[in-house]
């Protein structure tokens, strides 16, 4: 397929499906759905599998010879990644000191050998924020990109994608949230810094009271004040937005075409064209 200036490919990878879109900065439409495919994750192994089924789905949506030399950006479901915060070790003077602390923190939180995961960081030198993705998943993405002669621009979990887009717009004292399907991922903030990342299941009947109580509980767990404002990416229930004296929720962005898009498509279009 011939590529015009400003065009690229955006791939959303959910736990069980992929969605490929063409993005265009200068021409309309800005987004064009190209292909979607389902895959069945390795039963029983979860994130420790070889992701061979994902690789087959990628080959299906990226036919050989069709997108050679196109740039490809990938947004992952947070369920396919690990997100965690690391306190700066006392006396740390080198990057290696922080990375060693991150590996220890990762193992204590998740119990997985760090060698099975590729980690990266979004830097705040005072409180580094790390994410990790299974090496086997990355290997499938890299293999297909190489075989199809694609240029990988970035591979990032959705939370990191939204955080990078919106953290500068957060109001003082507000927490950041992302609602994807039935998972609320919280960015716990204190003194203007990200202190923790927490992924929480949302019950089907969760209302404003549930949200307020959940944030109060998380504040107690993290030893920080409960927020008066949650600034959220996603499409929350209408009653989350009801005005209240002590706490309220505000939407930063909602998924384009929310009701019509698949979960993988919403991942692909996270945070727009940037």
Q: Which key phrases capture this entry?
A:
about 270 residues; alpha/beta; Nucleotidyltransferase, domain 5; 3 domains; 5-stranded mixed β-sheet
Gyration radius from CA atoms, angstroms:
19 Å
- Report how far apart the termini are: 23 Å
CATH fold topology of the largest domain? Nucleotidyltransferase, domain 5
Give the CATH superfamily of the largest domain.
ATPase, nucleotide binding domain
Largest sheet: 5 strands, mixed
Which structural class matches the secondary elements?
alpha/beta
Number of structurally distinct domains: 3
Fraction in helix: 25-40%
**Helical run tally:** 6
Structure summary:
The protein is of the alpha/beta class and 274 residues long.
Would you give an account of this structure?
This protein has 274 residues and is an alpha/beta fold. It is 25% helix and 32% strand. The chain folds into 3 domains: 7-79 and 133-160, Nucleotidyltransferase, domain 5; 81-130; 164-268, Nucleotidyltransferase, domain 5 (2-Layer Sandwich), CATH 3.30.420.40. It is built from 6 helices and 13 strands. It has a 5-stranded mixed β-sheet with strand order 3-2-1-4-8. A 5-stranded mixed β-sheet has the order 11-10-9-12-13, sandwiched between helices. Strands 5-7-6 form a 3-stranded antiparallel β-sheet. A hairpin with a 2-residue loop joins strand 9 (175-180) and strand 10. It is globular and about 55 Å long. The model has no long low-confidence stretch (mean pLDDT 85).
């Amino acid at each position: 397929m011939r590529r015009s200036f400003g065009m690229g490919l955006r791939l959303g990878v959910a736990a069980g499906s992929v969605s490929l879109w063409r993005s265009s900065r200068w021409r309309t439409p800005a987004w064009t759905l190209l292909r979607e495919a389902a895959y069945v994750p390795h039963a029983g192994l979860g994130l420790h599998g070889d992701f061979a089924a994902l690789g087959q789905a990628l080959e299906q949506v990226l036919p050989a010879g069709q997108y050679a030399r196109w740039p490809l950006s990938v947004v992952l479901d947070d369920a396919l990644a690990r997100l965690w915060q690391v306190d700066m070790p006392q006396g740390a003077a080198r990057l290696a000191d922080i990375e060693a602390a991150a590996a220890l923190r990762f193992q204590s939180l998740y119990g997985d050998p760090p060698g099975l995961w590729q980690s990266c960081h979004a830097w705040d030198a005072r409180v580094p924020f790390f994410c990790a993705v299974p090496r086997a998943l990355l290997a499938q993405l890299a293999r297909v990109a190489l075989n199809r002669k694609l240029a990988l621009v970035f591979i990032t979990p959705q939370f990191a994608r939204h955080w990078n887009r919106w953290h500068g717009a957060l109001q003082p004292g507000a927490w950041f949230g992302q609602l994807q399907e039935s998972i609320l991922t919280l960015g716990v903030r204190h003194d203007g810094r990200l202190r923790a990342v927490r992924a929480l299941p949302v019950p089907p009947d969760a209302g404003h009271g549930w949200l307020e109580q959940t944030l109060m509980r998380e504040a107690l767990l993290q030893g920080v004040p409960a927020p008066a404002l949650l600034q959220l990416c996603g499409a929350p229930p209408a009653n989350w937005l009801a005005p209240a004296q002590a706490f309220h929720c505000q939407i930063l962005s909602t998924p384009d075409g929310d009701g019509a898009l698949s979960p993988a498509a919403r991942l692909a279009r996270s945070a727009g064209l940037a």
